[in-house]
Design goal:
Largest sheet: 7 strands, mixed
Number of helices: 22
Number of strands: 22
Helix content: 25-40%
Strand order of the largest sheet: 3-2-1-4-7-6-5
Radius of gyration: 29 Å
Structural class: alpha+beta
């Protein structure tokens, strides 16, 4: 009889009731359990639990009874919330007509509802970064996939928010790898793994668009959703017939040959490549039909897609860890679509799309129209003074003509140093402080031109009007300037000039961006421009860009234990060894910083080979985002912000900088800490001066070396004005300039 009872119990267990798949996932997350923890408890693989939560596979005895028991207990602890009607994206933020990716043809979309209102000159709304730290996946070997392929659903780890749209349920990207048994797996964010049935690159693209549910929602109402990103490991390259590394010729060309068999496979399948071809960042697409995009981005780390200068050792990470690093970056910045510089530039466009859908016409149809507050769809010519050497605007200049400050706008970051005074040589240490995300802070709240410049003769200077001004600032004397509302007496010879990158005092009329000229007025001196190129169509184009990158930086630093509003001593302690706490998140911090600098640098991208000759146009000039005036304004404001703090510091403490490089300032001091330099009183910093903290614009400790070290280095290289800020971090003196 007992055997019969056991058989009956087993039969009942085989049909143990289970809640719907979405409820299974909700209950697990509500209790803070990861997929891996549930899989370990039930003695199954992580992919198996993912399949159960996807609803495509069902547990069998004996695991089913145990799984049902787990869910029943969790349901008692976490009853389902009351249903709330949530509008879909189609109802809340309709898709507007947006241009395709550069070089990609597209058919304008016709949304059915009006576009959201956007005030010109204000930042477009962007989703906030995911709250809380991003869980780190366990380092385990890839399990064998189950016989039935898990559905393309995101297995979000504890604390991670649900994907905002079901079509992007598995996150923005996946790392494609091949396990020891030869199975192709896609490692998504949140620890989810998907089986990949594709046998070729064209099939992989089809699978990504039809089944993988990868992608990311738009960052702005009129914008477009991010294309899914696939990262191919070395094993995946071998499986799909691609080289593990590029040859020298392919590396110089930036792509594999058009005759490669994989490129031919794509062509036969009706897929296209952008003009950059099949390279480290390949974009594979079909022309849009009815406004629906069919596009997949590939990233190939072994082809140097992830530059180690910005991504550290990311290319060498195991698939799950690499998916985590890129996933955090994607959720907080955007899905990478090229180098950090390319992504930084694309982020500007994603937040301010050039076009939007118009109001319905008489026939009820919508059309593409200019999006106020954006740079538009068409490039504009810069002013002649803003044009870099070799620009078509300068083709009539003599071949070897060198333009001086009266012909060329030269707004660059500081690279200045001076010999130490006798008093400074009696001190023991050199302390370097570095401004956090200095160039991002310089972009915050900055009014920049949106359209073409207007040439004006003998203008009256307007500090609110973006532009380039020809003005003589040689009369500004740093020995007597206004610091706030008070006139102060300083030793002007110990300060760099705020008007030139090398810190030299100007000798006559020169071209300056608006923030530089406005600072001369702030110091208490009159300015009379001779001429100017001003932009009456202007706005705070970079505000949303700054906010997005600031939030990404602060959220990731908080995950590493460095929080905003920490006391100075606590902040310095938290910064000690911050990168070692989670090296993968430290990679994200590095990438965010590179996105800031690279994105601004792309605003004035120079020719990149391709047989270019001086006086001829180059490819970047065809972009609306080729705007050297915006880059100059940001750099000008960043340099001025730094000089303002140095003036306040000198007026209050009598201390002067020994060296300045970009966003790093070096002072001589008796102690080794920034607290031995910065004038804190009762825990409060000097108003308008340097302040310790993690926020953009605040400073951190860059490094400390001895005064003897500085003097020895300068004597060894016979360079009394060698810029010590370049080497203050670790004291190693090389010929390499890392730009920091």
């Amino acid at each position: 009889m007992s055997e019969l009872f056991d058989a009956i119990d087993a039969l009942v267990a085989s049909r143990a009731p289970l809640p719907p798949p979405d409820e299974r996932r909700r209950l697990r997350k509500a209790h803070g359990l990861t997929v891996e923890e549930v899989a370990t408890a039930l003695k199954v693989r992580r992919a198996t639990v993912s399949g159960w939560e996807a609803g495509k596979t069902e547990p069998r005895p004996p695991e089913r009874d145990a799984y049902a028991r787990l869910l029943q207990q969790l349901a008692e602890l976490y009853p389902p919330p009351a249903a709330v009607a949530v509008p879909t994206e189609d109802a809340a933020a309709p898709a507007a007509t947006t241009p395709p990716h550069p070089n990609e043809p597209a058919t304008p979309a016709t949304p059915a509802t009006p576009p959201p209102t956007h005030v010109p000159g204000t930042p477009a709304p962007a989703p906030a970064p995911a709250p809380g730290p991003i869980p780190k996946p366990a380092r385990t070997s890839a399990p064998s996939p189950v016989s039935a392929r898990p559905a393309a659903r995101k297995a979000a780890s504890a604390g991670a928010p649900d994907a905002p749209e079901s079509r992007f349920a598995n996150g923005p990207l996946a790392v494609v790898d091949v396990d020891a048994e030869g199975h192709v797996l896609a490692y998504c964010t949140g620890g989810l793994m998907l089986e990949v049935p594709a046998k070729s690159i064209p099939a992989l693209v089809e699978w990504t668009l039809r089944e993988a549910k990868l992608g990311q929602p738009r960052l702005s109402g009129p914008g477009r959703d991010a294309d899914p990103l696939l990262v191919l490991t070395g094993a995946a390259l071998e499986r799909y017939g691609l080289p593990a590394a590029l040859s020298d010729g392919e590396r110089l060309a930036g792509r594999i040959a058009e005759g490669h068999k994989v490129v031919k496979q794509l062509t036969r399948a009706g897929w296209k490549l952008t003009k950059r071809g099949f390279g480290p960042w390949a974009r594979i697409y079909r022309p849009a039909q009815g406004g629906e995009r069919s596009c997949v981005q590939l990233c190939i780390p072994s082809w140097n897609a992830l530059d180690p200068r910005h991504w550290g050792a990311a290319a060498d990470l195991p698939p799950a860890e690499l998916a985590r690093v890129l996933g955090v970056y994607a959720s907080r910045v955007m899905t990478p679509c090229g180098s950090t510089a390319v992504t930084g530039l694309e982020l500007m466009t994603a937040l301010h799309p050039p076009t939007r859908a118009s109001q319905p016409d008489a026939d009820g149809r919508r059309h593409s129209e200019h999006n106020p507050g954006s740079l538009g769809s068409d490039p504009v010519d810069c002013a002649p003074c803003e044009a870099p050497d070799g620009h078509p605007l300068l083709k009539d200049l003599p071949r070897f003509h060198v333009r001086g400050p009266g012909e060329k706008l030269f707004e660059e970051a500081y690279d200045w140093a001076r010999p130490m005074t006798d008093a400074e040589c009696t001190l023991r240490h050199l302390v370097g402080i570095d401004v956090n995300l200095a160039f991002a802070a310089g972009a915050n709240g900055l009014n920049v031109g949106l359209g073409a410049p207007t040439h004006v003769k003998s203008p009256v200077f307007d500090p609110k009007l973006p532009g380039s001004w020809l003005v003589d600032l040689s009369h500004v004397d740093l020995s007597r300037v206004k610091a706030g509302k008070q006139w102060v007496e300083l030793d002007g010879d110990l300060l760099p000039s705020p008007f030139t990158p090398k810190g030299e005092r100007p000798t006559g009329p020169a071209w300056y961006a608006t923030p530089t000229v406005a600072y001369a007025q702030e110091l208490g001196y009159e300015v009379r421009p001779l001429e100017a190129y001003v932009r009456h169509d202007n706005g705070r184009y970079l505000d949303g860009w700054y906010q997005r990158l600031r939030d990404a930086y602060l959220a990731t630093m908080a995950d590493l234990g460095v929080h905003a509003d920490m006391a100075p001593a606590d902040f310095l302690a938290a910064m000690d060894g911050w990168a070692e706490r989670d090296p993968e998140l430290a990679i994200v911090v590095s990438a965010v910083k590179a996105t800031v600098k690279g994105g601004l640098g792309k605003l004035r991208e120079r020719p990149r080979g391709e047989g270019w000759r001086p006086g001829e146009p180059w490819r970047a000039l065809s972009r609306p985002t080729w705007r050297p005036d915006i880059r100059a304004a940001v750099i000008s404001r960043t340099r001025i912000n730094l000089h303002r703090k140095m003036v306040r510091h000198a007026a209050f403490t009598g201390q002067y900088p020994v060296a300045v490089l970009s966003d790093c300032v070096v002072y001589a001091a008796d102690g080794t800490s920034p607290l031995d330099v910065l004038p804190y009183r009762d825990g409060k910093p000097l108003p308008g001066g340097f302040k310790l903290g993690v926020n953009p614009g605040l400073v951190k400790h860059e490094g400390t070396q001895s005064v003897l070290w500085g003097e020895e280095v300068r004597e060894r290289f016979d360079a009394p004005e060698l810029n010590l800020a370049r080497y203050i971090k670790d004291g190693t003196v090389t010929n390499v300039d890392d730009g920091e």
